[in-house]
Amino acid sequence: MLYGHFWGPVAARDTSLRAKRLEVAKHWESSVRSRNSANNVRRATDTSAPPRVKNITFSNPKASEFWVNGATIPEVNFDVGPSWSGLIPISNGVNETRKLFFWLFPPGPEGTLDDLIFWTNGGPGCSSLEGSLQEHGPFTWKKGQALPTQNEWSWTNLSSVLYVEQPVGTGFSQGTPTARNEIDVAEQLVGFLRQFLEIFRELKGKKFYLTGESYAGMYVPYIADFIYEHTTRSTLDLDLQGIWINDPVIGWEVVQSQIPAVGFVHKYEHVFAFNQTFLAHLDSVAAKCNYLDYMKKHVTYPPQGLLPLPGKSTEADSNCDVWDEIFNASLIVNPAFDMYHVFDMSPILWDVLGFPGSFVQTQVSPLYFDRKDVKAAIHAPANVDWVLCTNTNVFPRGDSSLPPAFTVLPNVIEKSKRSVIVHGLADFLLIAEGARIVIQKWVLRCLRGGMQGFQTPIAQESFIVDGVGALGNLHFERGLTYVEVELAGHMVPENSPAAALQIMEYLMGFRESPSRIGTNGPLLW
User: What is the CA angle 202-207-209, rounded to 5?
Assistant: First the structure.
C-alpha cells in the first residue's frame, strides 16, 4: 500500500494466442479433475478443518516467550497452528529502545523447512500485518468477510513466512524513528534479523527471499543490496536468493503515475465513465505535457536511446497533474472509486483493518489488531493504538534515497538468482505502463551485456495461471522477470492469490517459469 508498440503480424499473433488458449483449456480440464480427486481423497481421510503445519521447534528457551496458540486467536474458529510473534530490538545494545514487531508462521504440510520468506508492506509506515491477514498469511480476513477463513493460497504452503512491521514507527514497532534514508532502514532491519536469528537459531542458513509491495519497492532493493554488500554469512546467516516487489515505487512519480494516467483512463473508459468533454480535456493536457504519445514514441524494444523526462524535472510540471484531475473526477462519478483496484464499486465493504479503498474507513468496531484480546494473543504492546498506516513520520526529515532503479536495483538483479517485479494492471496509484518505462530507461542499463532495457517486446497474454488461463503478460531478460497480472490491483496477492502463489513458486525455484502449463508444459517466453 502507498499512503509495447510492436507485436508482429496480427494473424500470427492470433494463431499463437488461440493455440495457447486451447492448451490452457486442456490443462484446465485435467487440473479440475486432479483437484476434485484430491479434494475427495482429503475429505474422505481427513475430517479436521485446519491444515497441519510442519513440525518446527526452537532450542532457545526464549523462543517460547513468542509462541502463539493457534487455537485461541480471537475470531478465528479453527486452529491456525503454532506461530511466533512479538517485539525484538534492532541491536544488542543495552540501552536499545527501538524494536520491530514480527509474526512468524511455519510452513504447511507441503512446504519446505529449507526456506524463509520475508514480507514487508510499504507506505512508508504501513503495517505488514495487512500482508498477513489480507494477502498471503495462513488465515485471511478479506474486506466484506464476517469472519476469517483459511487461506488456500497462503505462502506458508511453500515455506516459513516472516512478517515484520518496519521501519521503526510502523504498527506495533517501538522507539523513536531515526531513519534518514533507505540505507538506515536496511541497516536497522538487518540488525533486527541478527537478533531474531539468535532466538530462532534453527532458521540460520535458510534460503532467504525478500518480498514486499508498493513503497517496499524502495525498502526491498536497498535491504537486498545491503545484505549483498555489507554482510557475510558470519554476520547474517541467511542465504539471500532473490527478491519480489509488486506494484513497486522504483522510479519517479511523474513516470510511474503521471505519464501513463490518461492512457490508463482510455483503456478502462467503461470503468471511469467520464463524458467526452472531460476526456478531450485530459487528452489536451496530456498532449501539452508530452504525456500523450510517450509510450508510442519512447518505449520501444529495444530502446532507441535514453528515454527523456516529459518536463523540466522529475516532478510533474505546473498544470500537468493529470493524475489528480482524474482521481478527483473519479470520486464525483463513483464515490466508491478505489485507486488501488479500479474495478471496485459501491457499496464500500467493511474492512476489519479500516482501509477498504482509497480512504481510511470510519467505523464503530475496533480495528482487529487494536483489540485488547488480539494484542494479548500475539504479544503486542497493549499501550499502542494500532492503525494500518501510521500517522508517525517514519522518515522524520524525509527519505533522501534515490529510487532504486537509479542506484541499487541493477546490482541486486545481478547478484540474485531470480528477481521478480509484479504489477497489477488494475492499479491506478502506480500504473504498470510506468513500470515499463522505468525498466526500459533505467533498471537494466549496464546489466549483463550493457544493453538498455528489454530487447524484445513483452508478449500479450503470456502469463498463464494453472487452472485459470491467460491472466496477464510476462517477460524475462538478464535475470529480471516482469509479470503483469490482469484484473489485479495494487495488492496483487489479495486480488489474485493463485497467480501470486504461482509467481512465488517460480521465485523460489519450484517452477521453471511463472507461466508453465502443467508439469511438463512449455515455457511461454
Answer: 115
Told to judge if 5 belongs to the known catalytic residues of this protein, a careful annotator would answer no
Distance (Å, whole) CA 215 – CA 227: 19
Amino acid at 287: A
Annotated catalytic residue, options 115, 173, 490, 513:
490
Selected catalytic residue, list 115, 184, 427, 466 = 427
pLDDT in tens, 438-456: 998 877 665 566 778 899 9
- Positive or negative, the CA dihedral 83, 87, 93, 95 is negative
Active-site residue among 214, 330, 358, 496?
214
Indicate the pTM of the whole model.
0.88
pLDDT tens profile 131-186: 999 999 999 999 999 999 999 999 999 999 999 999 999 999 999 999 999 999 99
Query: Are 108 and 172 contacting, i.e. CB atoms less than 8 angstroms apart?
Result: no
214 is catalytic: yes
Contact of 471 with 487, CB cutoff 8 Å: yes
The closest of 288, 258, 282 to 269, measured between CA atoms, is: 282
What is the distance of C-alpha 78 from the center of its chain? 27
Q: Quote the percentage of the chain above a pLDDT of 70.
A: 87
- Cell 518505462: give the residue: 437
Question: CA-CA distance, 177 to 168, in Å (whole number)?
Answer: 5
